[in-house]
TrEMBL record:
Keyword Hydrolase: yes
EC number: 3.1.1.-
Descriptive protein name: Carboxylic ester hydrolase
Family: Belongs to the type-B carboxylesterase/lipase family.
SUPFAM superfamilies registered for this protein in UniProt: alpha/beta-Hydrolases
Alphabetic keyword roster: Hydrolase
Residues of the Carboxylesterase type B domain: 7-481
Cross-referenced PANTHER family: ACETYLCHOLINESTERASE, CARBOXYLIC ESTER HYDROLASE
PROSITE patterns from the UniProt entry: CARBOXYLESTERASE_B_1
Length: 497
């Protein structure tokens, strides 16, 4: 049993009392249930309120998270970025709350949704420590949600988009309970990176999430990575065959987490042939993950870009952006960027993009190394241009940023890769510094101070020091330079909707 100090804070929520811990001027509540354990009959059910508990529940340790399997990346400390991997346990639909150690109320609230391709990740990754936001007068929340088969596979007889429904349930919990922690439920900003940003971008357009947040910060994400339910049924059938079960709720319910992870690992291999292209011949996720949200249900009735164009989410203020060299994370540490030739580059891109060779030529293939053309093309096709398209279609106030600072990791070649923004946003550079750190030996604290402050100011009252984005002026704020400028339309525009 943990030992308690007089100042350990106790807060009462609907399900019972919770006791956190005070450290360095911050009250920390780690692992509060926001929904019932997703096991047994609840495994493939929409989230329900947590079961009440008697007495005071200590919430000071991370606890369980969603079943997942993390692979190491040579030369890179991934634990700091995505957590230690699967911590087994039933009770993992939980969240963390950090708030300042004082008696202020009506504080702005920020809710973080972690990334990880809808397959891995945790609210407890060291780089995502919300204490830095609490230090600056924000009530910060971070959540777990269902992943993989349990969260994002549209199994017949199972509610679709269970992972997104979990995020919605956590946001509903915030609306009901955050006042107990000094937060203002009318001033909630959701923010996330990668898959977490994709989830947020989708929920900006969801009728089920309307009114749950005032602002959204979308880091290296957008609304272009959803699939139709019919397309995802191909994945249901393939996974059922791999597991030797029927492609039904009952079939998958009999599969334990280890066998499930084995099947996910197998179906996620680049050598596993499965066609997840939509009716337009495009695969919107470019093979990065087999598991993404679906459209065509009550969560996402239509593709998010179509919903934006029709005015969905117009009341939400949006800050959306990318890193300048996103795909370097996927192709530099592996050595693929500098080894792959023209034919293989075409083959890789052809699986997702019908006009693959034209896209590669637009990025210099034939005049420069094919792997570099492929990396730049995919950076724009997968991340940068779809984020700008989200900004173009969003009918509310929208600001666009880009982080152009280049990490010196991997001999200076990692650059402004995917995920480098997270330690800057959270002002947790030490987590990503060192010989195997994402940011190299000495990342600039001034950029972290600046980027973190931009996020805090936006969450407080929506203020940002540059003009909103529109199709004509195209103002993009570069974090390192500290200034906004016109950004021309990218070559990728010719190859995406």
């Amino acid at each position: 049993m943990p030992s308690h100090k007089k100042q350990d804070p106790i807060v009462r929520v609907a399900a019972g009392a919770v006791r956190g811990r005070t450290l360095d001027g911050v009250h920390r509540y780690i692992g509060i249930p926001y929904a019932a354990s997703p096991v047994g009959d609840r495994r493939f059910a929409s989230p329900a309120p947590p079961l009440p508990w008697a007495g005071v529940r200590d919430v000071v340790e991370p606890g369980a998270n969603a079943p997942q399997r993390i692979k190491s990346v040579p030369g890179l400390d991934v634990t700091a970025l995505i957590g230690a991997g699967w911590i087994a346990g039933d009770d993992y639909l939980t969240l963390n709350v950090w708030r300042p150690d004082d008696d202020r109320t009506q504080l702005p609230v920020m809710v973080f949704v972690h990334g990880g391709g809808f397959l891995i990740g945790s609210k407890d990754a060291p780089v995502q420590d919300g204490a830095t936001f609490a230090r600056d007068g924000v009530v910060c929340v971070a959540i777990n949600y269902r992943l993989g088969i349990d969260g994002f596979l549209p199994i017949p007889g199972v509610p679709t988009n269970l992972g997104l429904r979990d995020v919605i349930a956590a946001l509903q919990w915030v609306q009901t309970e955050i006042g107990q922690f000094g937060g203002d439920a009318a001033n909630v900003t959701v923010f996330g990176e990668s898959a977490g940003a994709m989830a947020i971008a989708d929920l900006v357009t969801s009728p089920l999430a309307q009114g749950l947040f005032a602002r959204a910060i979308i880091q290296s994400g957008h609304g272009g990575m959803t699939r139709g339910i019919g397309t995802m049924q191909r994945l249901v059938i393939r996974l059922a065959a791999l597991l030797g079960v029927q492609p039904t709720r009952d079939g998958f319910a009999g599969v334990g987490p280890v066998a499930m992870l084995d099947a996910v690992e197998k179906v996620s291999l680049p050598t596993t042939r499965i066609d997840l292209r939509g009716p337009d011949g495009r695969e919107p996720v470019f093979g990065i993950s087999r598991f993404v949200p679906v459209h065509g249900d009550d969560v996402l009735p239509v593709p998010p870009l179509d919903a934006l164009a029709a005015g969905a989410g117009a009341a939400v203020e949006v800050l959306i952006g990318t890193n300048a060299e996103e795909m370097n994370l996927y192709l530099v540490p592996s050595g693929v960027r500098d080894r792959i030739g023209r034919l293989l580059s075409w083959f890789v891109l052809r699986k997702s993009q019908p006009r693959a060779w034209a896209a590669l030529k637009a990025y210099g293939a034939g005049k420069r190394p094919a792997g570099r053309a492929l990396t730049d093309a995919m950076t724009d096709l997968v991340f940068r241009w779809p984020a700008r398209r989200f900004a173009e279609e969003h009918r509310g106030r929208t600001h666009v940023y880009e982080l152009e600072w280049r990490s010196p990791a991997f001999g200076g070649e990692l650059g402004a890769a995917h995920a480098i923004d997270v330690p800057f946003v959270f002002d947790t550079l030490t987590c990503a510094t060192g010989l195997e750190g994402l940011l190299g030996p000495a990342p600039p604290q001034d950029i972290a101070t600046h980027m973190h402050r931009l996020w805090v100011d936006f969450a407080r009252d929506g203020s940002l020091p540059w003009a909103p984005f529109d199709r004509s002026t195209r103002q993009v704020y570069r974090i390192g330079a500290g200034a906004a400028a016109f950004e021309p339309v990218m070559p990728a525009a010719a190859f995406l909707p």
